[in-house]
Amino acid sequence: MRPRVPLSQSQRQQRQRVLAYLFIAVVMVVFIAPSVWMVLGSIQPNREITKDTPNFIPRNVTLANYERIATEPQFRTYFQNSLITTSATVLLSLVISIHAGYAFSRYRFVGKRLLMTGILSVQMFPKVAILITLFAFFARLELINTYEGLVLSHLSLTLPFSVWFMKAFIDSIPFELEEAALIDGAGRLRSIWQVVVPLCLPGIVSVAVYTFMLSWNDFVFALTLMSQDDMRTLPVGVNLSYIGQFQNDWSGMMALSTVASLPVVIMFILLQRFMIAGLTAGALKA
């Protein structure tokens, strides 16, 4: 038996690199495969997907599912409702979190730590527990089937993280920069928007993307608070339009899911540089 020759350091590093690349490739396949199957399924007839041995490579390519989405007005209504509620949620979440994060970062007041802990504790409650209370509260205020009610429900989930994240960013900004603006005659509010906000741009983008994804993909709140068909959002429309007691149109659902995913994908592509900078900086500053 030949004696085992020990590997050199360069050989060990090369082996570790190969194993790392294989692990990354497996993880990528696991995460990307569902999205690829969704796109491929959307251009196939439903009978091709539901048969015993589905074709992963489409044989009968069709765009009928996308034509239906483009022609039927209900899908435009779903898209419009999602766009309105998500845009309002992102805008309000940014405005509130910037000012609240600034207040927690720059001011000292009684009960500050307790208040911050209370805000963060909201994240520990499951959606269902919050939804029961919100539904009863909104029913009395006549906010069911309204944009305002859905936006407020989304803010209850997005604001805790957003406020803490913005506080971590503002903590890292030297107060001397604001003092220079205050000495020059700028007010406190003006110094926030002209000095603090530009320096917090990566954090603001990260909060905007996080809020957009949570609001755009929300299903539970939208299903419960929006019972009228003309007030439903895309996630609810995807489920109720294609899946039911008498139909299971998987190819149509995949087509609408592909269209619903495009805004999130486009946002990631355009804001990827700011997101990475914001998340890494926020992790170091928190």
Summary tags:
single chain; 286 residues; mainly alpha; MetI-like fold
Short description:
The chain has 286 residues and is mainly α. The protein has 13 helices and no strands. Helix 5 (112-121) crosses helix 7 (147-171), helix 8 (175-183) packs across helix 9 and helix 10 (201-216) runs antiparallel to helix 13 (250-285).
Helices, strands, pairings?
Elements: H1 9-42, H2 46-50, H3 64-71, H4 73-106, H5 112-121, H6 127-140, H7 147-171, H8 175-183, H9 188-199, H10 201-216, H11 220-225, H12 234-242, H13 250-285
Helix pairs in contact: 1-13, 4-7, 4-10, 5-7, 7-10, 8-9, 10-13, 12-13
Strand count, sense and closure of the main sheet?
none
Radius of gyration: 25 Å
Order of helices and strands: HHHHHHHHHHHHH
Low-confidence stretches: 282-286
- Count all strands and give the number: 0
User: How many DSSP H or I helices?
Assistant: 13
Structure notes:
- This protein has 286 residues and is mostly helical.
- It has one domain (64-285): MetI-like fold (Orthogonal Bundle).
- The chain has 13 helices and no strands.
- Helix 5 (112-121) crosses helix 7 and helix 7 packs antiparallel against helix 10 (201-216).
